[in-house]
Design goal:
Blueprint (H helix, E strand, L loop, with lengths): L1 H62 L9 H11 L10 H8 L9 H39 L2 H11 L9 H10 L6 H48 L3
Helix pairs in contact: 1-2, 1-3, 1-7, 2-5, 2-6, 4-7, 5-6
């Protein structure tokens, strides 16, 4: 009888522990869903911001036409702050960090869910940063060329009014006066060569976004949506 009582007590305690672990597992899934749902608008906002950047890149490159006297410098200056803006996406890692640090992954009984969470974490910490680092090299190259060709004083004056948004074409006379006031001391032949390099660099920067960063963001969004659906289905959550 004593043995039976001890055994039953052990079973009851074991049952209670499992119940507590199941409750913790479900709570992790609730907060994981919250993190994933918060990631979607952040990612969508980042994509929209990059669309603005790329539209301004198009405006700048279309304004650089040769020979030199055909180049629309006011248009270039109006779009430079927007064209050379830089955005990044960082996923919400609150729950994933807790799962890692507390050994919480062992509580996730559903291996399909656990594997998808791990895959999303790896993609967000490896693939996306590597893609962004590569794109950063294109960006830095373009920034270096900008400082050789354009007046940072004029760019800063426009930035004070419009920050990273394109300035309206109605400001062309004012922008033109800024350019003349802050002339860059370059010989025409050197200016033309540098402008050609700058246009090439911007074009390469946009192409890298369209072929790499856009791919990364598209796949990140797909992984988020798949993981949300899987957690909702497996844990009966909304």
């Amino acid at each position: 009888m004593l043995f039976l009582a001890v055994f039953c007590g052990f079973l009851a305690e074991n049952f209670r522990e499992h119940q507590v672990e199941h409750q913790r597992e479900k709570q992790y899934m609730i907060t994981m869903l919250e993190d994933l749902k918060a990631d979607i608008p952040l990612l969508d906002s980042t994509i929209k911001d990059w669309e603005i950047v790329n539209n301004s890149i198009d405006s700048v490159t279309s304004a650089i036409t040769f020979p030199l006297n055909k180049i629309d410098f006011p248009k270039i200056y109006r779009h430079l702050n927007s064209a050379l803006n830089y955005w990044s996406f960082r996923y919400n890692d609150r729950t994933i960090t807790q799962l890692k640090n507390s050994g919480g992954f062992r509580l996730i009984r559903n291996k399909a869910v656990a594997n998808k969470i791990i895959a999303y974490d790896q993609f967000s910490n490896d693939a996306l940063p590597n893609i962004a680092e590569q794109h950063g090299q294109f960006f830095l190259n373009t920034i270096t060329l900008r400082s050789k060709i354009f007046s940072e004083e004029a760019i800063s004056e426009i930035f004070k009014l419009y920050r990273n948004k394109p300035a309206p074409s109605s400001l062309d006379p004012w922008v033109d006066s800024l350019i003349k006031k802050n002339m860059v001391p370059l010989k025409p032949e050197n200016q033309e060569i540098l402008l050609f390099e700058f246009k090439n660099s911007l074009t390469a920067q946009k192409r890298d976004y369209e072929s790499n960063m856009a791919w990364g963001y598209t796949h990140a969004r797909q992984k988020i949506k798949e993981l949300i659906k899987l957690i909702q289905d497996e844990y009966h959550l909304e």
